[in-house]
Design brief:
By secondary structure, the protein is mostly helical. 40% of the residues lie in helices and 8% in strands. The protein has a 3-stranded antiparallel sheet, with no helix packed on it. A hairpin with an 8-residue loop joins strand 6 and strand 7. It is globular and about 70 Å long. The N terminus and C terminus are likely disordered.
Length: 412
Amino acid sequence: RTSTGGVGGAGQGAGGRVVGPRTVLWQYDKENAMNNRGLVMAYEESTVRPVVSDIDAILIGSRGVVFQHLPPAQVKQVHWCCEEIQQILDSPSEEPWVSRWLEVLKQPSSPQHRIPPGGFGDPTSHSFMESLMNKMQGTSGAVRHGAECSNFYFPQELDDEYLVIWDQFSPPYWRSFSQKELQSFLLKRIADGYSFPVNPKWVLCDKGWLSIFEALLASEQAQASMEAWFPSASGLRELILSIARTHPEGFIDRRASREGVDLDPDRAEMLLRRHRSLQRAKRKLQALKRLRGTTALRSTKPERLDAAPGGSPGAGVSVGSCSTPGSCSKGRLPSTASSPANDADCFSKASPIREPRSSVRFSSRASSAKSLRRSDRHSARRLASPLKSLSITRSEPLKTNMRVHRRAAHQS
């Protein structure tokens, strides 16, 4: 199987991105280096070679090999994969498989997946694929990651044609099979004593793979291998068979045409990265907003003001507009740095405490912070809860206004 990269199957080795060397531009035209028509994509290996794609290994069959057990963390990953597939099958829609699984990965409740370098799989298979990648690196670099049968993060749609390599074929030792021909070939190999892992997505969603899974479970030669891949104590076998019997038709693709399916993994990777970047940005903004809100609340917490002499208890306090700006410091409300005489004169002209004419007044929530500087708007919103709504007509900092506010009440 070949692909141009993507999530899971084509790049499951490092969190959904393609594992391997840098992708570079290679100039095919040796005479004219500025010929833009001679530029092709290439991999930067020990030598630079033009490439079209890498090869996605689907599975590797063996006979007489002892496999180490799948790590417990990956057993949980397979459980999660099967449960999510069950939810998709329980709620069919018109969306293709890649779009449905992309929605699974976008869910906030989706666990954080730590994909090992080279992809998932039992240690024995992982070691084999790692050795294959190292050997291919110096020649063609065609193999970049583990087999698709161990892709428990973003299982892909199956292709229509497959390349099968087997030393028992007559030369050349490879054949091109359709999916049905591949399934028939695998059933014959199981009868010969071979075993191989299969992805739960194939068994649950694609026709013909349930019979292969059942044949592996029934084969005496495959018992040790199946115990390594699907431990009997984990309940994976029962879970897979139960879901498969509940949905015998598997995943039904309702699209009129499968044209363009090969581009879906690439587009899914782009959309998933964009979604995760936006989610990270939102979380940072929310944390910053909470932090600024806490800081503003601590620095501008209002104190209870007693009513001035002659005023009714609990009445609001207001400061009148200064009618003689020249007598105040810089034409603003009096402050501790201004002249006491001028301040007293200014306060004598202030409106009564019970009058609504003021630079601090109650108003509608919609216009509560229009005239504030950006640093003061959040403080006004925090104060709007105990005071119903607050609007400050001057551009003075809120803390300074509150201090002047209290002094005006005392002086008057």
